[in-house]
Amino acid sequence: MTTLTSTRPLKPAAASVRTFEVVGSHAVSPGFRRVTLQSTGDGFEDEFEPFGHDHWFRLFFADVGQPLHLPFGAADGWYARLLAMPDAIRPAVRNYTVREARRAGDRWQLDVDFVVHRDAAGQVDGAGARWAQRCRTGELVGLLDQGRIFNADEHDGPVLVIADESGLPGVEGIAHALGDREVTYLLEVPHAADRRALPAADVRWVVRDGGRPAGASALDALRATRVDPGAYVYVVGEASFTLAARAHCLEAGVPKSRVDFCAYWRTDRVRSA
């Protein structure tokens, strides 16, 4: 996740770097792989509260065949602790969304959908996607809860959600949380098979033309849509697309205070999903 974010996130009351275990993984569609993580009883159970919506977290993982070392401690200072670790043992860290959180006895299980980005040669691109493709049951990772970005709790008007595939897991959570509210979803995915059944009436899918930049087709759909100045707008996805969509909504009269956004990745630097 890049630094291009809104400024009104909802944070957990308490959060620390905790250890999780991979308990399953499988392909969901051509563009997604789902990994199920389970807490290990090291304190996560005492501090975690599911936010729903686009609840996100930081995932720490080691290279293939390497032991996992984590910057244990509270959320404050996690990055300084990470940088203080020797290069040889410092884990990779990427940001992901909780698709579903559920109890498994006295533990928590989290389903996490990873976008399987591919380069021009068709190879899996990005450290997180490669990890999701090769992870095995029993493998340990680290997790730091971060709360959620979507924040229309005090808005009772229409909602407009705009996202590419990297935002889809969070959008699915948002759709389940909002129920029958007046929401329009403009969603771009790389493959028709990546579309999902959402509990919403107005879902407009756009399947990307392989020759176009990520988000370009969703922007076309947005420009063809009347944006209600009274709406709450949520935009997530590739950085250039996210900024362009936000700018369009501001030009349509939506105030900055009602536009939450996050750039999950950049075309030239795949990092998160």
Give me the CATH fold name of the largest domain.
Elongation Factor Tu (Ef-tu), domain 3
Biggest β-sheet strands, sense, barrel: 6 strands, antiparallel, barrel
Structural class: alpha/beta
According to CATH, the homologous superfamily of the largest domain is Translation factors
Instruction: Give me the oligomer status.
Output: single chain
Instruction: Look at the structure and give the CATH class of the largest domain.
Output: Mainly Beta
Organism: Promicromonospora sukumoe
Protein name: NADPH-dependent ferric siderophore reductase
InterPro entries: FAD-bd_FR_type, FNR_nucleotide-bd, SIP_FAD-bd, SIP_fam, SIP_rossman_dom
Domain FAD-binding FR-type: 15-155
Summary tags:
single chain; alpha/beta; 2 domains; five-stranded parallel beta sheet; 273 residues; Rossmann fold; globular; 6 helices
Account of the protein in words:
GO terms for molecular function: oxidoreductase activity. This is NADPH-dependent ferric siderophore reductase. InterPro entries: FAD-bd_FR_type (IPR017927), FNR_nucleotide-bd (IPR039261), SIP_FAD-bd (IPR013113), SIP_fam (IPR039374), SIP_rossman_dom (IPR007037). Residues 15-155 form the FAD-binding FR-type domain. It comes from Promicromonospora sukumoe. The chain is of the alpha/beta class and 273 residues long. It has two domains: 18-147, Beta Barrel (Elongation Factor Tu (Ef-tu), domain 3), CATH 2.40.30.10; 159-265, Nucleotide-binding domain of ferredoxin-NADP reductase (FNR) module (Rossmann fold). Helix content is 19%, strand content 32%. It has six helices and eleven strands. It has helices at 44-47, 78-84, 127-134, 168-178, 216-223, 239-251, and strands spanning 18-29, 32-39, 56-61, 92-104, 107-115, 140-147, 159-163, 183-189, 202-207, 232-238, 259-265. The strands form two sheets. The protein has a six-stranded antiparallel beta barrel with strand order 1-2-5-4-3-6. The protein has a five-stranded parallel β-sheet with strand order 9-8-7-10-11, with helices on both faces. Helix 4 links the parallel strand 7 and strand 8. Helix 5 (216-223) runs parallel beside helix 6. The longest helix has 13 residues, at 239-251. It starts with 17 loop residues before the first strand and ends in an 8-residue tail after the last strand.
